Amino acid sequence: MKTLVWVEHDGSAVKDATLSAVTAASKLGEVHLLVVGQGLDAVAAAAAKIAGVGKVHVADDAAFAHALAENVAPLIVELMGTHDAFVAPSTTHGKNIAPRVAALLDVMQISDILSVESEDTFTRPIYAGNAIATVQSSDTKKVITVRGTAFDKAATEGGSGEIEAVASTGDKGLSTFAGSEIAANTRPELTSAKIIVSGGRALGSGEKFHELIDPLADKLGAGVGASRAAVDAGYAPNDYQVGQTGKIVAPEVYVAVGISGAIQHLAGMKDSKVIIAINKDEDAPIFQVADIGLVGDLFKILPELTGKL
Amino acid sequence: MKVLVPVKRVLDYNVKPRVKADGTGVDLANVKMSMNPFDEIAVEEAIRLKAQGATEIVVVSIGEQKSQETLRTALAMGADRAILVVSDTRVEPLGVAKILAKIVEEEQPDLVILGKQAIDDDNNQTGQMLAGLLGWGQGTFASKVEIADGSVNVTREVDGGSETDTLKLPAIITTDLRLNEPRYASLPNIMKAKSKPMANKTPADFGVDVTPRITTLKVVEPSKRSAGIKVADVDELVMKLAAMGISK
Ligand SMILES: Cc1cc2nc3c(=O)[nH]c(=O)nc-3n(C[C@H](O)[C@H](O)[C@H](O)COP(=O)(O)OP(=O)(O)OC[C@H]3O[C@@H](n4cnc5c(N)ncnc54)[C@H](O)[C@@H]3O)c2cc1C
Ligand SMILES: Nc1ncnc2c1ncn2[C@@H]1O[C@H](COP(=O)(O)O)[C@@H](O)[C@H]1O
Fold it and tell me: Across residues B152-161, what is the average pLDDT?
């Protein structure tokens, strides 16, 4: 199978989620990449170096600057004339674009795969990861999104992909980008962080969240996450949310502070290698999945822990 | 302005899903079923648009006969009219999107608001597929919706923060959790909903072939984590961390 992998990038570097998608795609056969955006020389060069890639299709046009699905999907559909599968990471861009492509190709998408069993058979989580389904697709072309935490990252060096410019399919005039608010985050990205410290509703305020969670994360060189309750209450930005409807993470160490452990939260972090929970309620469900639990008041425990590390 | 809201009946989000012993799926016998939480948010948003001049809210559900209960809930919240498309076999997002596209042709709504994902299959596809089939703009994962003249501004939850796009109307919107807080239906409104109109259809009425493209071969429980140990105090936790190479 010849697959076309959507390259997620920030204008200068290829994002890690892409590397996991490349590994998944390589299990299907030949891997080609698609880099879309405006001003792509650096990204295209970086993409070409990813181990194991063949062609790197580059579509550089103002219409693609913000990866609007309405403009990007027709381009992908055109390229799918010569590819057998379209593979995208389960990022917000990937999830936005891939189903539009699938519908235009009259294909049923396979979302968020965890493994490739064969060319047409995959496993994927359903019910917030409370069940794992093995599914077989009868469509001749495949459209697939990939859960990043389920696949190793392809090496960023060693490849020698051949860069090829693709003509733009233009601006479809359905949508325009009006602006964005992307939080400047100097911490490791959640989806690739080795250690994550997450705070829940128990933190009580944004000030306390920063005052207690940030220093511990600094000490550990960790990324910072949050429960939905903490995000809804405004203690942390929405980008921090871990769970069924937030980010799916699988770090070496996940520290849950004042988080009860609702199934929707567990869905996002229960594949972490080591889970540490700090909660004042010894019956909190989080302790059923935690490797190390500490029962007590986080307002006492966190300053002490940060001090002693 | 007319708004169409597709709603799905799913296992209630508070119920812990149990995998059937024969590995064919998740047990849905005798468990509480509810409206998909993201669809409640979609219905709520449509009702709020009514306060800004939207004229009619039509809700649609595709599924078994019992999906009419879900539609009644939406009517009790404040939708005006319902369409039930009965199918005893599972309809995939692609099939749902094709049926919805036909309903859009008949109903001519200005806006279709869907949930971003149904929490049973976690597909996150239907809205984007419908937008593709119709050739409309799509504002997915919406946390804010503002109607303007002939267009709609949608603030979307994206990796790293939020993004605002302007879409030409008619358009598709899919809801994220922070878009609004859905209301509960009051008792009088539940009573009133009983007499609101509900049309009964089948996929064949729309000429849509809903044969699944994906076969589920097996469903299993994920590997379980077992509870570990509890430490007595911070000092012991620090020791454990040190033993894992997370240092002082
Ligand atoms: C459709 C849907 C999707 C959802 N998606 C997500 C998702 O992606 N991510 C997510 O996280 N949630 C999600 N939720 C919400 C989820 O169901 C829970 O409501 C949420 O995770 C609870 O957050 P919490 O644990 O911070 O708050 P709570 O459940 O209120 O727990 C707070 C915990 O803090 C403890 N505590 C209180 N004070 C202290 C103290 N001083 N010291 C120590 N411990 C203390 C308490 O014992 C309690 O266990 C979703 C819900 C729905 C319906
Ligand atoms: N059978 C259905 N009937 C009505 N609406 C549906 C159905 N399936 C999906 N939807 C809508 O599409 C959204 C996304 O679902 P999905 O793509 O299955 O995750 C849901 O939140 C609903 O708004």
Answer: 93
Whole-angstrom distance, CA of residue A172 vs CA of residue A174? 6
| Best CA proximity match to A92, nearest among B137, B161, B134, B181 | B161
Q: What pLDDT shows up at residue A63?
A: 97
Residue B129 contacts A where some CB pair is shorter than 8 Å: yes
> What is the interface pTM, i.e. ipTM, of the complex?
0.95
Backbone angles phi, psi at A211, to 5 degrees: -65, -35
- Please tell me the pTM assigned to this model: 0.94
Q: For strand B161-168 and strand B171-175, is the pairing parallel, antiparallel, or unpaired?
A: unpaired
**CA dist., res. A61 & res. A170, Å (int):** 8
Query: B7 exposed, middle or buried (CB, 10 Å; 0-12, 13-18, 19+)?
Result: buried
Residue with tokens 């062609």: A55
Output b/e per residue, A29-56; b: 16+ Cβ within 10 A. ebbbbbbbbeebeebbebbbbbbebebb
Distance, in Å, from the CA atom of B36 to the CA atom of B44, rounded to the nearest integer, reads 13
Residue contact B93–A109, C-beta within 8 A: yes
Kindly determine whether residue A138 and residue B221, on different chains, have CB atoms separated by under 8 Å. no
